[in-house]
Amino acid sequence: MASWISMSEACERLGVQPQTVYAYVSRGKLEVMPDPADTRRSLYRAEDVAGLAKRKQAGRKHETLAANTLFGSEPSIPTALCAFFRGHPYYRGQDAVSLARSATLEEVARLLWNAEQPVDFSSSTPLNATPPGRIAAFTALAHMAATGHSTRGRLTRVLHNESQALVGQVANAFGARPGQQALHLRFAKGWKQSTHVAELLRTAMVLLVDHELTSSAFAARIAASTGASLPACLLAGLTTLSGPLHGDASGRVQALFSEVERLGEEQVVAHYLSTGLPLAGFGHHIYPDGDPRAAALLAMFEPPQVIARFIEKVTQLTGLQPNIDVALAALVAHHRLPADAAFGLFATARSVGLLAHSLEQLSVAQVIRPRGRYVGPVPALAARSTAA
User: The whole model's pTM is what?
Assistant: First the structure.
């Protein structure tokens, strides 16, 4: 659980006066709650105080600030799409976990895109000879990126229409059956699953739509800032998402589950913990108390017994809770979905968020162009040497 500290402790750790603490609270940088022992006093989230103290210690020198902006924990780009409050992600102020109980991907896309009309991902684009999967998705997007039109000088509603067609085509590439139904039902039909499984797919995709300023969202925004086409923005984001330390982390979990099914949970856990190897899919730096997205999805089905025992044992021995990558991999294992289904669901759902970031970036009308801080050898001054 989160730990809370008093005003005096917060002031001491930050080296500031109470007025500064109040300012942090008013700007949303420090979470506060009433003291259960004395309602006249307040308590402050220790994790927030620690983060503020760390940034304060880093100093405000220009070079330090520039380095931390790119490689630290808080790239400074304003967004109204997604934020984290009380351990939950929120889409435009609405709890993503609550939305996932009933909302469709189409409804969440309309919310994030701020679209006037309902969003429709139906597409009659037939699959080509390439088997469903990321090769088909990336190949199709690459072709569209090469022939697409710039986002500049085009009405928002036109860009919304193009965005919904792009998401539909990505879904088709991963095996969704073309048609007029909601996307989760099309995936269930394409993967020959029941309507019960379709509900699981719907929930998973809503939970995965966006996660604030991730690496893939930043990549999509950079492309959008240059006026690149929407397919190019989406391709930039999805290729970044495909990294094993980002959206394809569920692939690492699936490999781990394969070991568990082959060797048993006892042997796998003992091997990883005795050698100090990290266990993919457990723990999340944004959710120290546990990933609520994983908890919501895992509550809807029972993973295979050996995987369930593995999850329980890892949690017991490490204290780390499973994150959404474990939940996705467990869903694929339980219902024997296609091998690339976890990434397919992630990529399709996150396409909505990546396009939302791209559309939001268009209003800035400024190219994202960080400066390099050269740390290499001093250039050889050949011309000066010759002159001497």
Answer: 0.81
